[in-house]
């Protein structure tokens, strides 16, 4: 059983290697064809007058720059789309934070005893106390109990 498993793995690796080699051969063939085309174009430009060679070179450079600009424009559009998406997410999260903070100040302390410490910390961040404490009348027994403990 182990020998069969190893043989199967070896055959799989051999098949993958052959497929990879075939793909690389195809890639080399395409590159050779492209190189031959470029060589023919180069030989043709050498036969042209110097003025036409310069014009041809400029045309090639314009084409290259145009393609580069299109690629950059596509990248810019992609980045702008991502920026808009992130801004929308930020607005959603800011709204959730505001809703959460609003719910923390409107829910009576008795309903959320496990969040008392957090509420105090939030209040200290939001307000500058100067000896006065604002509280609801129904929270008075809980406030006194918390002050004692």
Automatic annotation (TrEMBL):
Protein keywords: Coiled coil
Keyword Coiled coil part of the UniProt annotation: yes
Stretches assigned to coiled coil: 3-96
Protein name: MYO5B protein
Naturally occurring in which organism (per UniProt): Callaeas wilsoni
Gene of this entry: Myo5b_3
């Amino acid at each position: 059983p182990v020998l069969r498993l190893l043989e199967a793995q070896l055959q799989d690796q051999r098949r993958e290697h052959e497929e990879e080699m075939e793909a690389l051969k195809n890639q080399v063939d395409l590159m050779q064809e492209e190189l031959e085309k470029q060589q023919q174009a180069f030989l043709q430009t050498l036969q042209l007058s110097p003025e036409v060679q310069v014009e041809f070179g400029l045309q090639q450079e314009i084409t290259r720059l145009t393609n580069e600009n299109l690629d950059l424009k596509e990248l810019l559009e992609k980045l702008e789309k991502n920026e808009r998406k992130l801004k929308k997410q930020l607005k959603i999260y800011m709204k959730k934070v505001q809703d959460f903070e609003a719910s923390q100040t409107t829910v009576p302390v008795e309903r959320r005893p496990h969040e008392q410490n957090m509420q105090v910390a939030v209040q200290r961040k939001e307000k500058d106390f100067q000896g006065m404490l604002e509280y609801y009348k129904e929270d008075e027994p809980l406030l006194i109990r918390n002050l004692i403990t």
